[in-house]
């Protein structure tokens, strides 16, 4: 037996003793090894289940309503409100779901829509309500592409006047405005745009529209058409129309057109403009927020003789306004949420001479309101979710003397409500259980005095229903999809380690989403008892945190593994988005709310530790970038406005408090700002490196920045005229990434953190072509990555950090075929990927950085060989992934790669570092770490995994079971670093044994911190 000496001196000890002692003291029962990939658990079995037709986009009205289903690739149906009168018009032989959600309109007794002809592409169809009378009206984009695919015009956004039907479609001349009289000959082009035509709005017998273009492309603006090419022209050439306002951009009141705009040289912001349909008659109507700030009026809706809209004011925030068509008669109706935050009126819909809408107040949340245009006549109809919880009313539609709308509730799902415009007449019609997994949301369409909607019923699945507002008059129209036998899928994703378990989210077919946990075995894979599942999983201490959908908003929840209790941490009527990065002891989320401005949500997984932080901001249109982790702080950019206002971009660092928030830099930017991102944070030494991606139209570029947390230490390293840079890897004291300097295409680059030391590593595809390198993965003294070779396809490359040492490692699929998928680290010895050599199908491959050591490591993967595993994650020594299997559907699979060492999580305090090599049976395991040079003594703790991570200090969590066998090994760092080496017993029974090393580091002046933990799995 070999021996070694401890770094702190003392008698020599057997090198195998630490691991041998731990094994015998722990007395653990060792799991059986799993030699290859296997199905973890078939969460969704394959019984006979109700089929779903998933009806959507109800169009038209009485006597016929038209809609699409997801049966037969997007079939077109119509109904007269009865089972017998519900028939299919176009089947899968004639129409499939186009690339864009289909639209259509009923006009003069017929229905016009987009449909796909197998020979002509997606073109204009017309239907008289019978299968025989549903035919192609005209091929608007004749011919075929260079690949011999039929050209498709994809007609969309139909509106009608008394004279013509208007829409826009793709042609050889760009996005084209058309009009039609219902015949092929009378369907002609009126106007062509190199940008996008949008916001078609009837104006008497004419139509107004918007020509949306890049601000640097000449032309564009608001236009009008009388249905002839000569009578189609732009009327707002010198104006900038806001690209971010929703549909119904134009409000038509009598003979006036109202819209939001500003002049190119104006000192005023986006304000309320008016036009009579001519350039001369187009002018500023009223400056609602005087000065350079814009009131941003939008949601123009006419009810009776009044124009309603929402707009900002410095005193009221975003509130409801009304206009009688004169500047003097244009005013705020009521300050529903007193103060500058505003109520954020949304989903404005006419109801006779009144207006229905949703609005927010702090005490009641977001609830349904009604207005007659006066302060007294503007009030909340009913607090449907009592208290401050939002009901999020939406999709208001009038049917006869009633209006119907949808709401969300805490228990999930929706409900259909009706109202006669009074609080007492506002009542629930029927509950709507959650819909199946589909892109099409719930909707309501008027059908005479009734409404049509879709409902997910346990007996019939998701089918079309009809209601007159009474229980007896609310019923299924027709079960379009009878029972079907399918391989159902759970679609697992977001595998997340917490203590001795792996958690993941599922989105089953025809079932609500759920959260599951597993110990790596089928028997130990069980559902969590949580009331509301979701996405954005994060492990924080002994808690799992995630975001669930609730109505139109979101709720942040936590599940405590020890007590099995679920707690609500935060609610919002808006979407809560998790930061894509993990922070030290906390997690960040963002909430974009027009009433409250951009907000950061900070949580440590507890209710007391969940708080909001609003950075300095201006109006509610401000936005923030995703925050980047930097120790116990976060770096973020903003607020900024995605319109031509912002000229500087502030860069901040914050610990979530006002006192701990500091301005690092002010970056000049040239508007308009299309988007801003902070990407790929990498810590190298005491500095944080990241990409700042600025999408400023033709001036789009990406800048490599670095910061040490101070303004003086925050500087740009190098700017690139590229927007494809998303990956930054630190290895051997340098940074590696893909970049395009506009001369050589997207190629591998290297940087030592200085402008002079930032250069292209090698031009793999010489010239301006791009090899598109990505998935840079360190492997000892080599760095592996995936890149494109012009003669071999996407294959595996390797570099030692020099130009000469950067080359193709192996052509996995010989010839011009892609052979290599996404790379992921498998411990310290191998990099894994999905490979296809062209003969044996898709398999897991591993590479040790050599040609001979790049080989398949598993048998052929089950199921669909054209698919890819979703979110592969190495956790507890096993690779978890989602895979499509023709027998089981998309379910969770596992694969055991052998011995592996995986550093995970984050350290605390002075952030001591711990890394390890793979503990191969009969070999050696090496530990390497870094400590604070001022206090170079610590203790390496080696033990079994704690069921629940133990909080032992601010941001510090012990991942080792404190009451099990715990072996302390002294370590001493020289000049801040240390190394340890131990032998690993060659006992086959130790295969798959999981251990947890972590360094305890005493601090000067008392206390301690902990290094990051390492998953150490023994194996071959």
Please give a quick description of this structure.
This protein has 1020 residues and is an all-beta fold. The chain has 1 helix and 88 strands.
Roughly how much helix do the residues carry, as a percent range? under 10%
CA-based shape: globular
Q: Termini, distance in Å?
A: 20 Å
Largest sheet: 6 strands, antiparallel
Kindly report the average pLDDT value: 84
Q: Runs with pLDDT <50, length 5+?
A: 1-14, 24-34, 92-100, 243-247
Roughly how many Å is the radius of gyration?
A: 31 Å
Total helices: the number is 1
Structural class: mainly beta
The strand count comes to 88
Report the sheet-strand fraction.
over 45%
Could you characterize what this model shows?
By secondary structure, the chain is mainly beta. The chain contains one helix and 88 strands. Strands 78, 81, 84, 86, 87 and 88 form a six-stranded antiparallel beta sheet that branches. Strands 21, 22, 23, 24 and 25 form a five-stranded antiparallel beta sheet that branches. A hairpin with a 2-residue loop joins strand 47 and strand 48 (543-550). It is globular and about 85 Å long. The model is unreliable at 1-14, 24-34, 92-100 and 243-247 (pLDDT under 50).
């Amino acid at each position: 037996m070999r021996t070694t000496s401890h770094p702190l001196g003392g008698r020599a000890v057997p090198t195998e003793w630490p691991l041998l002692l731990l094994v015998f003291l722990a007395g653990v029962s060792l799991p059986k090894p799993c030699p290859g990939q296997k199905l973890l658990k078939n969460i969704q079995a394959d019984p006979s289940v109700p089929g779903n037709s998933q009806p959507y986009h109800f169009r038209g009205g009485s006597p016929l309503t038209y809609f699409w289903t997801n049966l037969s690739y997007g079939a077109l149906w119509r109904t007269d409100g009865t089972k017998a009168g519900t028939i299919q018009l176009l089947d899968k032989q004639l129409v499939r779901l186009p690339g864009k959600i289909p639209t259509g309109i009923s006009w003069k007794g017929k229905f016009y829509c987009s449909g796909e002809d197998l020979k002509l592409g997606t073109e204009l169809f017309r239907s008289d309500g019978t299968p025989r009378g549903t035919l192609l009206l005209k091929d608007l984009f004749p011919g075929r592409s260079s690949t011999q695919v039929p050209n498709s015009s994809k007609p969309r956004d139909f509106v009608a006047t008394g004279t013509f039907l208007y829409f826009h479609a793709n042609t050889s001349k760009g996005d084209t405005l058309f009009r039609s009289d219902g015949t092929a000959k009378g369907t002609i082009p009126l106007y062509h745009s190199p940008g996008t035509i949008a916001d078609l709005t009837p104006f008497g017998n004419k139509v107004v529209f918007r020509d949306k273009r890049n601000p640097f492309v000449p032309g564009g603006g608001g236009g009008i058409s009388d249905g002839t090419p000569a009578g189609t022209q732009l009327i707002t050439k010198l104006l900038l129309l806001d690209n971010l306002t929703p549909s119904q951009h134009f409000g038509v009141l009598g003979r006036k057109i109202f819209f939001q705009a500003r002049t190119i040289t104006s000192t005023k912001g986006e304000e309320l403009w008016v036009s009579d349909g001519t350039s001369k008659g187009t002018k500023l109507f009223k400056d609602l927020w005087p000065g350079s700030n814009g009131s941003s009026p939008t949601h123009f809706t006419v009810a009776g003789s009044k124009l309603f809209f929402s707009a900002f004011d410095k005193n009221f925030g975003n509130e409801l306004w009304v206009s009688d068509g004169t500047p003097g008669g244009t005013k705020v109706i009521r300050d529903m949420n007193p103060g500058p935050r505003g109520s954020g009126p949304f989903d404005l819909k006419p109801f006779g001479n009144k207006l229905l809408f949703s609005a927010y107040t702090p005490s009641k949340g977001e609830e349904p309101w009604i207005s007659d245009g006066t302060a007294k006549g503007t009030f909340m109809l009913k607090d449907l979710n009592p208290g401050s919880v939002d009901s999020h009313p939406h999709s208001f539609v009038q049917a006869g003397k009633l209006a119907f709308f949808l709401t969300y509730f805490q228990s999930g799902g929706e409900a259909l409500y009706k109202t006669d415009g009074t609080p007492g007449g506002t009542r629930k019609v029927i509950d709507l259980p959650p819909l199946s997994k589909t892109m099409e949301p719930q909707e309501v369409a008027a059908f005479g005095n009734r409404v049509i909607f879709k409902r997910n019923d346990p007996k019939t699945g998701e089918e079309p229903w009809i209601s007159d507002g009474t229980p007896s008059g609310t019923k299924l129209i027709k079960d379009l999809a009878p029972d079907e036998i399918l391989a159902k899928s759970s679609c697992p994703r977001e595998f997340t380690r917490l203590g001795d378990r792996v958690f993941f989210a599922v989105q089953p077919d025809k079932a609500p989403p759920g959260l599951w946990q597993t110990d790596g075995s089928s028997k130990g894979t069980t559902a969590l008892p949580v009331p509301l599942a979701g996405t954005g999983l994060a492990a924080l201490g002994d808690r799992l945190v995630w975001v669930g959908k609730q109505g139109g908003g979101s709720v942040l929840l936590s599940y405590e593994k020890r007590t099995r209790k679920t707690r609500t941490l935060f609610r919002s009527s808006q979407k809560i988005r998790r930061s894509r990065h993990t922070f030290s002891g906390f997690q960040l989320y963002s909430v974009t709310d027009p009433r409250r401005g951009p907000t950061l949500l900070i949580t440590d997984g507890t209710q007391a530790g969940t708080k909001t932080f609003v950075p300095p901001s201006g109006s509610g249109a401000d936005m923030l970038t995703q925050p980047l982790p930097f120790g116990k702080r976060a770096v973020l950019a903003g607020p900024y406005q995605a319109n031509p206002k912002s000229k500087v971009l502030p860069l901040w660092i914050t610990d979530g408090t006002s006192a701990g928030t500091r301005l690092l830099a002010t970056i000049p930017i040239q508007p308009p700002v299309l988007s801003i991102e902070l990407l790929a944070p990498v810590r190298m030494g005491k500095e944080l490196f990241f990409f700042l991606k600025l999408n400023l139209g033709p001036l789009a570029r990406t800048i490599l920045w670095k910061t040490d947390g101070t303004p003086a230490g925050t500087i740009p390293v190098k700017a690139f005229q590229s927007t494809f840079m998303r990956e930054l890897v630190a290895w051997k004291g340098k940074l590696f990434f893909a970049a395009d300097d506009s001369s050589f295409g997207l190629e591998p680059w290297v940087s030592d953190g200085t402008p002079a030391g930032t250069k292209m590593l090698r031009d793999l595809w010489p010239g301006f072509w791009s090899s598109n390198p990505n998935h840079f993965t360190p492997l000892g003294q080599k760095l592996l990555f995936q890149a494109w070779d012009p003669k071999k396809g996407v294959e595996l490359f390797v570099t030692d950090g020099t130009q000469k040492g950067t080359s193709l490692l192996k052509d996995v699929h010989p010839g011009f075929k892609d052979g290599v998928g996404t790379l992921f680290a498998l411990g310290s010895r191998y990099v894994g990927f999905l490979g296809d050599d062209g003969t044996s199908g898709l398999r897991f491959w591993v590479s040790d950085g050599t040609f001979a050591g790049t080989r398949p490591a598993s048998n052929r993967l089950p199921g669909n060989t054209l698919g890819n595993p979703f979110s592969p994650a190495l956790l507890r020594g096993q690779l978890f992934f989602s895979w499509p299997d023709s027998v089981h559907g998309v379910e969770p699979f596992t694969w055991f790669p052998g011995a592996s060492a995986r550093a995970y999580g984050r350290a605390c305090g002075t952030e001591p570092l711990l890394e390890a090599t793979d503990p191969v049976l009969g070999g050696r395991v090496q530990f390497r770490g870094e400590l604070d040079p001022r206090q170079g003594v610590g203790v390496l703790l080696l033990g079994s995994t704690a069921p629940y991570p133990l909080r032992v200090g601010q941001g510090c969590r012990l991942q080792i079971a404190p009451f099990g066998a715990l072996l302390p090994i002294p370590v001493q760092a020289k000049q801040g670093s240390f190394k340890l080496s131990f032998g690993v017993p060659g006992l086959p029974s130790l295969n798959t044994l999981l251990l947890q090393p972590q360094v305890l580091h005493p601090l000067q002046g008392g206390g301690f911190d902990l290094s990051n933990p390492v998953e150490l799995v023994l194996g071959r």
